[in-house]
Amino acid sequence: MQQKLNDVSQRPLDETILIQYQNALMQQSLRDRNIEEKVDKLQQHLTAQDERIDYRMGMLEGKVSEVEQAEACISEHSKDDTYAITKDVKQCCEILERYNALVIFAKAGGSKSKTSLQIAMMYQEKMYTPMLFLNDEVVKKREDLSILMIKIL
Fold it and tell me: Is 137 exposed, middle or buried (CB count within 10 Å of its CB: 0-12, 13-18, 19+)?
């Protein structure tokens, strides 16, 4: 392009030079347009990636909060010197080992919370990251629970 401009400044403008100059300008214009289109596509892609990352970060923050809550409950339970490991805990651990999932159902006061905390504490000692869904959290975590129940079946 620079060479063509130099040629124009050195020679008089005849039809051949004008056509060459016009063709060079058209080619440059097409290149510029292609670059702009590619930049636009990249910007759209980056925007979509940012949205996905923001969504995933939100999900991770929620999971971190759930893990912290579970760890706090387990820590509090570990301070309870009066709790004795029962055969129910051992049966639950066997089910967990076999199916990789466990749902505990019992009537009010049936030690569901204490049992689940004891199991979680035992698995935490084995370097697992327990997730506890207590009381009304089961309703909130219905999707996760459905996945767990599918694993059991």
Answer: middle
